[in-house]
Amino acid sequence: MRERREQARTQAREHGLAPEAAERSGERSAKSSSTGSSALTRSRVRLDLPRAPRRSLLPEYDPEAFGRLSERVARFLGTGRFIVWMTLVIIVWVLWNIFAPDDLRFDPYPFIFLTLMLSLQASYAAPLILLAQNRQDDRDRVTHEQDRKQNERSIADTEYLTREIAALRMGLGEVATRDWIRSEFQDLIKEMDERRLFPAERDEGDR
Fold it and tell me: What pLDDT is recorded for position 42?
């Protein structure tokens, strides 16, 4: 602050201004610089802190719970029980509004309210079925990805075992095998039996 005041006084002397006016202008410039720096610090957004959630006018809901509900509805719509119950309701509805007294009929011919109810049911059933299919597609995609990774690991393990078996076979090619040792023992046994049966001929042949 002192340095700024001295600078303001020197500038005032150079320009021929009063020192008090120079001090006031210096204080104003210092205040403006401090307010500008404080405004900059206030306008900065902290990146290390999570952003506060915005208020939404739409109602909040749990997507997972809604998805499970849609799957249940889609499963029920695809059963024979739903078809039977819907057929019975339509038959009772039509018969009641045809043969019931005029005072008790609530949807006379051409059954506009029944048509409205069926169209409303179809308009809600189609998106619910599509939502259930999308969830099933997501599960199938995850399952296929896991199967693909498992197959890749199985192929890698099989290739490793194949290389190990080939290396063992190459190594055993230079080692005496069980069949070779057995054949050698059989030849020795035959030779010993021949010596026992024909010892004299064997000695003469050696001489």
Answer: 52
